[in-house]
Structure formats: C-alpha cells, structure tokens
Design goal:
497 residues; mainly alpha; 24 helices; 77% helix
C-alpha cells in the first residue's frame, strides 16, 4: 500500500520532485514552530513560485494547492480571507470561463485565417510579420492562449500532411511524426528545413500574443484584474497603457522583421518550395470541398467576432458576460446543442481557473502576514519615473521566473491597499498600475514560465515534432525579450509621465 501511495503521488512527476514537495511541506511545519508565521509565509510564497517554475514537471494545481492548504491549516490565512480574495478576482474567473470558451467555438474562423496567410504569402519575412501581427491583433481581443492554440493546430495539421505524403503512408502514429526514420534519406534535409520554418513562425506568433496581450483589458487575465481594481473600462485601459504598449508593439514588430530577414536566433528559414506547393494544393482542395454548412459556420463566427469587438469597445457589460453572450450566439447559430459538445469548449480552461483560485489563496497569505509591506514602503519612498521604472523591472523579473498573473495579482492589490490607506495619490496609483501591467506582460517573454501561451506551446504535441525545446525557446525569445524590455523601460521612464 505504501509503495502504491508513493507511486501515485503527483502521478508522472519525477520522483525527486515529489520527494522535494513532501520535504517542503514538512519543513514548513518546522519553520512555523521555530521561526514564526512571517518567515513561514515567505517560505510558502517562494515554494509556490517554485511549483510554477516546475510546471513542465507537474501542473502546479496539485503541488501549489497542497502548499496553499497547508498555509490555511497553519493559520497564515483563513478560508474567509481566501474567499474574499476570490470574490475580488471574480471578474477574471468570468473572463477565463466564458471568453476562452467563446473563442473555442470561433476556432474554425481563426484556423481559416492563419491557413490562408500561410499558403498565400510567399515572402518568408512578410509571412513572419503577418503571423506576428495577426497573433498580436487577435490577442488584443481574444484569449492569447487560444490564439496560439489555433496557430499550433495549423502548424501541426500542415506538418502531419507533409510527413504522411513524404513517407507515402497514412498509417502513422503521432509518435512516429517526431522521428525521421519513416522518410527517405533524400527528404531528411527538406524535413529539417520545414521544421525550422514552422519553429520560427510559431515563435513569432507566440511573441505576437504577448505584444497584443498587453494592450487591452482582455488581452491577458491579469489585465482585467488590474483594470477592475482601477475602475478602467476597455477604452480607458487601452489609452492608459498606450504610451508604453504601443512603442513596445512597434519595437516588437520591427524585431520580427529584422531577425527573420537576417536569419538570426533560429528565425528566417523559408518553407521548402516543394512543401509549399503541397500545402497550397491541399488548401485548394479543402476550399473546393467546403460545404454550404461550413461556409455558414464561418459567417456566423465572423459576425460573432465583430459583435465581440463592438461589445468590448462600448463596454456594454462585464467582460466575462460578453464572453457568455458570444458563447450563446455561436452555439445557437452553428448548431452546438449537445451537452458533451458544449463541455468540450469549457474543458480546456477549467484547470487554469482552479489554479487561479490557488493564486488568490497565496495572495491572502501575503496580505494576512503583510509580507510586501517593507517592499512597498521602499518603492513608495522613490519619486516619479524612478518609482514606476523599479515597479516595471521588479514585476518583469518575477514574471519571467514564475507566472505573470500571480505577480500582477500581488502587486496591484498591494498598491491599491496603499492608495486606500492614503499613502499614494490617484495619479500615482494609475502610473503604478500601468507599470505593473506592462512589467508583467513584456519582460515575461524571456522564459516559458512567465507566459501561459509559451508554456502551452512548449508542452504541445507540435513541440517535439519541430524540435522546440525549453532552451531553444529561450534562445529564440532572447532578441524579443531584450528589445521589448528596454523599449518598455524607456517608455515607462520618458513617455508615461
């Protein structure tokens, strides 16, 4: 029984990780007895960040949740405080559940758009630019993770198509597609070139989701949390962040063109001509076989997309409720009426929604023990641009190591408490909110840990097929990280004030 229990704990996570987590849980009790609640609370925050950083080993819900439960049991916070933090973040929960689901039922339109761009645009640099730009624009209004999921679906579909044609076999398992053994030796070079091309395009799109995600209220979950604390609607959020987000967007798109044109950091490999022709023929055949029902579904999704943009711009309701509106319209008019079909749309977002509530539990610990009081006092002692610059950099560094939603949740709640206590003016609070938003969104592209969309790409079925590892992703994101972080810092110092 003991052996079975040990083998079952955290499932497929490495044994060293499971043992480490159990040791940390035991250490927390010892710390609480010897060093007191404040030191223990700091340990729990660092341990929770550790579980976020180890997301590739085990999804953080279970390990992070165990740490949060222990914090409550040790009296570092209370169930009531966790509930109150969750209620404060309820608009973000609504956003995740309904807006992400709405985009799931709009995926055919997004697949169509990216597929058309991939087959119509022949210039490699222009193709990279369009992938980055489209991902940025879509992520400003839709969920970034869902947008990247569509890009992954397009790349995976075309890669699978090419591989099966090149291997002259339809009877291949997904695991076979990551190997070269089923292809003639003469086509190995062509396959590697196609892998490199898809790698570059998906990474351009991944960075594009970050470029667009920082600009609007719905671009990332933490944006809505910040906007809710500040009382900003969709238009005001965009205007407030524009002095930083727009220069960063321009710098990011310019970086896309330069690295792709000069073939730097693994970018710029063109799609082999033979492969491109194969994809074009396939796309033409798909268009010819598109039924009246298929065209109707695309039309409904296009109308729903326009309705979504208008509703967000006019702020006709809470963002999550607008998402529910789009879910109802889409499912009604494209004919999704079975419960299991509806459940598919909600399935993908629920693990992260649960994890978000665990975030709120850790935030409740931070508030109950006043962990960030000294840090906030240090920041508040600074003046003007220096203050916002340090907030931007601190949020960026922490977001690159852990998770930008968690970091933003902590910092915006702390500066809001300082405002409520009369320690900062409304104008200072607004500048801090912009620094927190841009700090958590922009430098976090440095690693897959900081951006949920990056982590999703790294753990997708596509990653091993196109040889996209953790190290390679960090290397390819490096020029974007440097340019976007520095341009954002320049804007925070010189354009925001």
């Amino acid at each position: 029984m003991i052996t079975t229990a040990a083998a079952s704990f955290l499932g497929h996570a490495p044994r060293w990780y499971s043992v480490t987590l159990l040791a940390l849980l035991a250490l927390n009790v010892l710390l609480w007895l010897v060093a007191g609640p404040v030191i223990t609370a700091w340990a729990i925050v660092l341990e929770f960040i550790f579980t976020l950083a180890m997301a590739l080993k085990s999804y953080p819900l279970a390990p992070g949740g165990l740490i949060a439960i222990e914090a409550v049991l040790l009296g570092l916070t209370t169930p009531q405080q966790v509930y109150e933090e969750t209620v404060r973040g309820f608009p973000v929960i609504l956003l995740l559940i309904f807006m992400v689901t709405a985009i799931y039922f709009m995926r055919e339109l997004l697949l169509y758009l990216f597929s058309r761009v991939l087959t119509v645009v022949r210039s490699q640099t222009l193709l990279a630019f369009f992938f980055c730009l489209m991902a940025a624009v879509l992520s400003a209004f839709l969920d970034a993770l869902t947008v990247l999921a569509v890009v992954i679906s397009v790349a995976l579909g075309f890669y699978t198509l090419y591989y099966k044609v090149a291997a002259a076999s339809e009877d291949l398992d997904p695991d076979d597609l990551a190997s070269n053994v089923h292809l003639p030796v003469a086509r190995h070079g062509e396959l590697e070139q196609f892998r490199a091309a898809l790698r570059g395009l998906t990474m351009h799109a991944a960075v594009g989701t970050a470029l667009g995600g920082v600009t609007t209220l719905v671009g990332e979950p933490q944006n809505l949390l910040i906007g809710h604390e500040m009382g900003w609607d969709f238009r005001e959020f965009f205007v407030r962040c524009a002095p930083v987000s727009m220069p960063v967007l321009a710098a990011g798109l310019l970086t896309c063109v330069i690295v792709d044109r000069l073939r730097l950091f693994g970018f710029g490999t063109p799609i082999p001509p033979e492969v491109r022709e194969l994809l074009i023929v396939f796309e033409q055949r798909e268009a010819a076989h598109r039924t009246q029902r298929d065209r109707w579904r695309l039309t409904v999704q296009a109308v729903a997309a326009v309705l979504l943009v208008v509703a967000l711009a006019l702020h006709v309701a809470e963002v999550g409720l607008i998402g529910l509106l789009i879910v109802v319209v889409l499912t009604a008019f494209i004919g999704v009426s079975e419960e299991h079909a509806l459940a598919e749309g909600f399935k993908g977002v629920m693990p992260f929604t649960a994890l978000l509530v665990v975030f709120f539990a850790i935030v409740a610990v931070i508030h109950a023990q006043d962990l960030f009081g000294p840090v906030l006092a240090w920041v508040l002692a600074m003046d003007g641009a220096v203050q916002t610059a340090w907030l931007y950099l601190a949020n960026g560094a922490l977001s690159a190591m852990s998770d930008n939603v968690f970091v933003a949740t902590i910092y915006i709640s702390e500066v809001r408490r300082a405002f409520d206590a009369g320690l900062v003016t409304r104008e200072e609070l607004e500048l801090m909110a912009v620094a927190i938003n841009t700090g958590t969104n922009i430098p976090s592209v440095a690693t897959p840990n900081g951006q949920a969309a990056f982590l999703f790409l790294l753990t997708s079925a596509l990653a091993p097929m196109i040889r996209l590892s953790y190290g390679r992703m960090v290397w390819m994101a490096l020029p974007y990280f440097v340019v976007m972080t520095l341009s954002g810092l320049f804007a925070v110092i010189f354009l925001l004030h």
